[in-house]
């Protein structure tokens, strides 16, 4: 057991050391992407803003960004001999379009989260106050305790939304903003 834990710790250390960041001249962290065949780069669907990248490309970029600290902006270097000059601009726009939508979605979820926290907290306070009032007016202890439990559930849910869900949405927003603002260049 001890040996297994030690091996896992060594593997973790090796994995972390292999993630040495690479920076360009403007101190932007570089993400390298090699495209061997570009037929699946764009989604077959588009919205009013134009084409967007496919789910596979988005998944690749999202995974590439997960290991980044994001203290600086990003520089995406796409290496491919299969992409012509017209497609280069198309793909650049598609990446921007996709991550613009992601930023907007994350922003909406942050606003929704804020209101959920507020309403859950207020509901919890009101329900607990009702439980206390019920107890003070001589109501059943069972009813008062049940109301009290419901109130604490509302309060716990507001804490969970604020301190567990909200940071994850912020991380997603930070990644989407970083990819939306990334410099995108191509090399053969």
Please give a handful of descriptors for the protein shown.
elongated, two-stranded antiparallel sheet, single chain, 4 helices, alpha/beta, 3-stranded parallel sheet
In short:
This protein is of the alpha/beta class. It has helices at residues 2-17, 55-66, 85-136, 141-180; strands at residues 29-34, 42-47, 50-53, 74-79, 183-187. Helix 3 (85-136) runs antiparallel to helix 4.
Strand percentage lies at 5-15%
Write the H/E string, N to C. Answer: HEEEHEHHE
Report Rg.
Answer: 24 Å
Outline the biggest β-sheet.
Answer: 3 strands, parallel
Number of helices: 4
Helix content: 55-70%
pLDDT averaged residue by residue: 92
Task: Compute the number of strand runs.
Answer: 5
Uncertain residue ranges: none
Strand order of the largest sheet: 1-4-5
Shape descriptor reads elongated
User: Helix/strand-derived class?
Assistant: alpha/beta
Report how far apart the termini are: 49 Å
